[in-house]
């Protein structure tokens, strides 16, 4: 069905091998037979947690992000370790970054946030039945946590205070879930 759009790899080489990210440069054959170069980031994948309290408020983070030189409002999130189950990763990240644990977990969706230059995928989970505990931040990790009403987060998306894509999508999903408009699909 989509064969007329398919690009085929002719050769591939890794041009950067970092601690966390790797960069590939591939020569590809376009649908019309011409060749082109594709450069993209290999990413191990990540999870984002949408921590929802019984009162409808949401647990959020504020964290400085170096590439854009500013603090962002985000959901707890982190990369998937090699061989790690995605739900186990979500539970680990919530506990490490916020100190909270949850009794009820629900897969929401998988997003691809930078499809033109990265193979990164993010799996979003709603966490309910939250119980406070002790944070265990990674070495070199600094962030603040706070509770916010969902309506406030929606307004922050609307007015541009929240621009992180996983958080924007997560806030919209939470609105639909809380209102009973959407039921997340089973995890593929």
TrEMBL record:
Pfam annotation, one family: NUDIX
Stored InterPro entries: NUDIX_hydrolase-like_dom_sf, NUDIX_hydrolase_CS, NUDIX_hydrolase_dom
Known catalytic reactions: GDP-alpha-D-mannose + H2O = alpha-D-mannose 1-phosphate + GMP + 2 H(+)
GO biological process: nucleoside phosphate metabolic process; ribose phosphate metabolic process
Transmembrane segments: none
GO molecular function: hydrolase activity
GO cellular component, one term: cytosol
Keywords from the named record: Hydrolase
Boundaries of every Nudix hydrolase domain copy: 41-170
Needed cofactors: Mg(2+)
Family: Belongs to the Nudix hydrolase family. NudK subfamily.
Protein name: GDP-mannose pyrophosphatase
Protein source organism: Herbaspirillum robiniae
């Amino acid at each position: 069905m989509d064969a007329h759009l398919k690009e085929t790899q002719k050769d591939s080489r890794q041009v950067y091998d970092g601690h966390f990210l790797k960069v590939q440069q591939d020569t590809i054959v376009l649908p019309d037979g011409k060749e082109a170069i594709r450069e993209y980031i290999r990413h191990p994948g990540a999870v984002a947690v949408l921590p929802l309290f019984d009162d409808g408020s949401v647990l959020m983070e504020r964290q400085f992000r170096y590439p854009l030189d500013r603090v962002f409002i985000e959901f707890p999130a982190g990369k998937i370790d090699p061989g790690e189950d995605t739900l186990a990763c979500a539970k680990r990240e919530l506990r490490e970054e916020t100190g909270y644990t949850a009794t009820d977990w629900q897969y929401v969706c998988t997003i691809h946030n930078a499809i033109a230059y990265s193979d990164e995928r993010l799996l979003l989970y709603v966490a309910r039945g939250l119980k406070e505990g002790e944070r265990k931040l990674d070495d070199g990790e600094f962030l603040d946590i706070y509770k916010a009403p969902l309506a406030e987060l929606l307004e922050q998306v609307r007015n541009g205070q929240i621009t992180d894509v996983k958080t924007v999508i997560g806030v919209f999903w939470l609105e639909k879930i809380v209102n009973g408009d959407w039921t997340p699909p089973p995890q593929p």
